Each structure stands twice: as C-alpha cells, then as structure tokens.
Amino acid sequence: MIYPYYTYGNIVWAANYDSSLRCVTLLQKRVVRVIAGDKYLARIINRFKELNIMKFESIYVYLTGLFVYKVINKCFPDIFLNYFIKITDTYKHYTRATCGQGLIVNYARTNYRKFALSTRGPKVWNDIPLSIRHIDNFCQFKKKCSVH
User: Where are the domains of the chain?
Assistant: First the structure.
C-alpha cells in the first residue's frame, strides 16, 4: 500500500541529502514495525529481509539502475540516447577503465549537480556487477538487480 508512494518519481526526488530524507526512512521503519507486530523501539534490521522489503535507499539505487539500463539499451525515446556516455565510446584504446565497460561519471562542483540523474546514474551503474549489467533481458535484469 505504501510502496507506490516510495517509487513514484523516486529517481528525481530521492536524490537528496540524507537529513532531508530521514523522515521518509523513519516512516518506512515504522511501517515495517507495524507489519511485523514489533514494539516501538524494536530493532528491525533483519525484518526487512524477513518480509522481503527493500529499504528506501535501496529503492532509489534499484530504480536508478533500471533507468540507466533502459537508456543504454535504447528502450527510451531518442532524446535520452546521449544522456550517459560509455567509457568505451570515449577511449578507443585499451585502458583499465574500458575493461569494466562502465559509464563516465560527470564532474559535479555543486551539490545541485551531484544530485542530478546524469551524475548519480553512472555511479549507480558502475557499482552494479558486470554479470548483471550484461544481461540482455529486462525482466532478468530486474530480478538480479533487486537481489543485488
């Protein structure tokens, strides 16, 4: 019942300071306590795994990874094709970075730019293991990415 509120527009509004998102994470913890029937001060670290619920921070990383996957595999309109730059497109010769086949992370001098999807997307994508990044089927990618 609450999950759609966490996912709607998440890749835009969840890229923010931790202090700004603290109320959202506390609310999620409170909901998990209610679902599990735990007391107010009970620790719920293991409850997320038991109930198969993603933490709020993980939801942001997951949805950002899905967005980048769709952009790289050209599932979005043409306007997004140049949104991310592959390292292999920049360097034509072999480097240590080209073997990872990641994306170039844009330099961000301001926090406004650091929170932008064009800067955070490559960071999230480069943190996903190569075995998951090379999956061709979107449904399989979603499953592997959610487990990761």
Answer: 3-57, 63-147
